[in-house]
Description:
The protein has 126 residues and is α+β, with helices and mostly antiparallel strands. 21% of the residues lie in helices and 18% in strands. The protein has a three-stranded antiparallel sheet. A two-stranded antiparallel sheet has the order 2-3. 17% of the residues are buried.
Amino acid sequence: MPKFYTLSYFRLFIYLFLFFVVFSIFAQNHPVDGNYIRAWLVLGPFFPNDLAYDFLTGVGGEAKIEPKEGDTITTVEGTILTWKRYKAKGNIVDLVDAVGRQLLFSIDLNFQSDLERDIIPVELRR
């Protein structure tokens, strides 16, 4: 696979990851205690032919997603995917452990805070 092709997919993954972290609606109950968030909802894998396609169109689209553990999504190909709770073993979310070695998947997390914030810092590592 050419390097530019791989970088395009990695860049898309980063954009999708940030989209779901910042704009998701599902609330987690995690007290502010100085630890990293370890509980997530994951959905996937997706096998995209068109990276611009909204895989969550059947439930209102990526912008209106309100997933709960156990909710299902039916892909265009007819595959049923289930939102599953994933708990990180440490301070790093191992996405390969969460959904396997796939190109595209969704994770969901929403913050509730007494403080108004515009940006939530997220770090991805390969």
